[in-house]
Amino acid sequence: MAAVKPKRISFIGSSLGGFYATHLAEQFPSARAVLLNPAVRAARELAPYVGQLTAYDSDEPFDWRAEYVEQLRLQQVEKITHPERYLLVAATGDELLDWHEMVDFYPNANHEVIEGSDHGITEYPLYLDRVVHFACYLD
Predict the structure, then answer these.
(1) Measured between alpha carbons, how far is residue 30 from residues 6, 24, 26, 110, 115 in Å?
(2) Which of 8, 43, 102, 118 could form a disulfide with 73 if both were Cys (CB 3.0 to 4.6 A apart)?
(3) What is the pTM of this model?
(4) Could you give the angle at the alpha carbon of 92 between the alpha carbons of 137 and 50, nearest 5°?
(5) What are the tens digits of pLDDT across the range 39-57?
(6) DSSP string of 68-89?
(7) Is residue 34 located within the same domain as residue 46?
(8) 26 CB contacts (<8 Å, ≥6 apart)?
């Protein structure tokens, strides 16, 4: 990644992908990030699930290992820099993650708080224009 020197780049991630998008955005000072119900403390959230699991969207089994949790700890961003580079889309009805924690973790960022909804943000198509405009630097 050190060889990549983009003038404009955006990372978009949902849930654990939001955690990774935050980590990556902090590696590139001019990058933007769009975060959809992000896991802000992924290691803490996922540590209890070490072992054999079933994929969220299928019946496919997989192993979630302690070393994966440690990798997440090492990638944890403690505080974001330049909050104007972030767009947080958080649903108050997220059944997996606490939207209050999301809002608190991204202070002074661009916030789009959706009343109700769910972890997958069922109403995502209603927010797609906002996401694209922000990610493509059209705002």
Answers:
(1) 9, 11, 9, 16, 31
(2) 43
(3) 0.91
(4) 95
(5) 999 999 999 999 999 987 7
(6) HHHHHHHT--SS-S-GGGEEEE
(7) no
(8) 77, 80, 81
Two tokens, residue 30: 């001019």
Q: List phi, psi (to 5°) of 57.
A: -110, 15
Alpha-carbon gap, residue 6 to 35, rounded angstroms: 20
In the numeric block, the tokens 């001019």 are attached to 30
pLDDT digits 0-9 by tens, 98-113: 999 999 999 999 999 9
pLDDT at 16 over 70: yes
Chain-centroid distance of CA 93 in Å reads: 16
CATH code of 101's domain: 3.40.50.1820
